[in-house]
């Protein structure tokens, strides 16, 4: 009994060991294992890897030359719950709505705890290389892409340079100027 009390007194004087959440440990592991993806860059504060800035700069497709920033929040339930992404600039995209919500199947119904942040970053890049009109958040953009591809291309170009599409002003994500074509 005396030995137990002595150990309790000794332990009371030791600093408490801070426990690391599963989410934090997994986020750190995913970020440490991250291998560079062309046209994708990430940044985060090493003391808080639960908030990540993702930048996508497609080098081909409709969105070529644009710079698209995303804020990523890793939830405390990660990896059992998918990370949350928000597109910072307002863009014209079938799978990203005007408020910046992202529609990517692996961030919703197809999320599995075995998926990594690397895979999600690559999935978001893929949305810019091959937008999907069959799973839209922006139905107008999806309709244009599916039925009027030339019109969609013109609308994307107009929006990348900070122009208007159907009365909606978009953020400039590409340098230079765009001369609107009326042939579609």
UniProtKB/TrEMBL annotation:
Pathway(s) of this molecule: Protein modification; protein neddylation
Pfam families noted in UniProt: UQ_con (PF00179)
GO molecular function, one term: transferase activity
UniProt domain UBC core: residue ranges: 22-165
UniProt cross-references to CDD domains, sorted A to Z: UBCc_UBE2F_UBE2M (cd23794)
UniProt-listed SMART domains: UBCc
Catalytic residues as annotated in Swiss-Prot or TrEMBL: 103 (glycyl thioester intermediate)
Swiss-Prot/TrEMBL keywords: ATP-binding, Nucleotide-binding, Transferase, Ubl conjugation pathway
Family affiliation: Belongs to the ubiquitin-conjugating enzyme family.
Protein name: NEDD8 carrier protein
Protein's organism: Ambrosiozyma monospora (Yeast)
